[in-house]
Every structure is written in C-alpha cells, then in structure tokens.
Amino acid sequence: MVERILAATREVLVADGYEHLTTNRVAARASISPGSLYQYFPDKSALVEEVTSRYVDRLAEDVVAALVDHVHDDPTAMARATAEALLTALERDRTLLRIVWQELPVARHLDDRLGLERRVRDVLRAYLGGRLPAGARRRDPARTSWLIVLAVETLAVRFVLDESPPLTREEFVDDLVAMATAWL
After folding, report:
1. Model-level pTM?
2. Are residues 161 and 106 in the same domain?
3. In this predicted model, what pLDDT tens digit does every residue of 25-66 receive, in sequence order?
4. 16 and 31 both lie in a single domain
5. Gap between the Cα atoms of 145 and 148, Å rounded
C-alpha cells in the first residue's frame, strides 16, 4: 500500500506540480480513500518528503557506487565514470529533478541533498586522502572534495535541466573531468 501511495504521489507531483499536489489527488490516483492514505502518511509534506528522500537516495547510491567501483582507477577514469553515473542518474527522471530542484521549498529536501553531498564527499575524501598515484599533487582532501562535489553537482543539474545547453553531453563530461582532475 505504501508503494502504491508513493507511486501515486510521484505521478501527481510530476503531472500537477508541488503547489497542486493534495492528499485527495494522491488518494484518487492510488484508488484508495483519503482515510486509508492518512493511515500511512499524515499530510502532503510527509508524502513529498518520502518521495524526494527515495529519489535522492537512489541518486546517491548510483554516484557512490560508480565512485567506489572506480576508486582504484587513475583519477581521470574515476572522474569520468562518476560524472557519467551522475548524469545518467539525473537524466533518468528530469521532471522529478526539476520539481525537486526548482519547485519544492528548499527546507523540504535540504537534508536529503546535504546527505547526498556528504556521502559522495566522504568517499572522494577517502580517495584523495590515500589513493592518489605516487607523485600526484596533494591538496587538502576535505577542501578538494567539497569543491569538486559542489561544482560538479551544480553544473550537472543545470546541464540536465537546461533546455539547450551550449555543448554536447560528451563535451560536458570532458569538461567536468578536466575541471575535477585539475583540482587534484
């Protein structure tokens, strides 16, 4: 029942936007009574919080998995694999990304977004702290991981949401990799 309600919440959110999402619309889309919905979720905020939390968790899993899978690669290959994974994850659901990034009140998903950034930064910081090839320039891992994660996240979201970015996806990945590896 919870999965049905959350699927209906996502559908209403994508179709009608955050402002028009109501528990009654979600209940109707899920083909249940509003009372049944309230047995699982007390209000609109709880519904949106769970949908966005799951969305961000999936993004984090995809990006962290790519980073961990390539942690023993050279920095360029690791950066490329991670950038590709991030873009693929963001492109999977552009409409929901737009709603989360541009429509939802920041307070509704800030903890999830910060958690995503923290998870990726932690893995990257560990990589930078001890896994760079011999002879590589060393910078403060906390500072470098913060810069890379925030810059890449912001640029990737803007690239995916932009109606007509001035570069191809391949060019964008190349530029992200060049930027990230330059900070190493």
Report:
1. 0.84
2. yes
3. 999 999 999 999 999 999 999 999 999 989 988 998 999 899
4. yes
5. 5
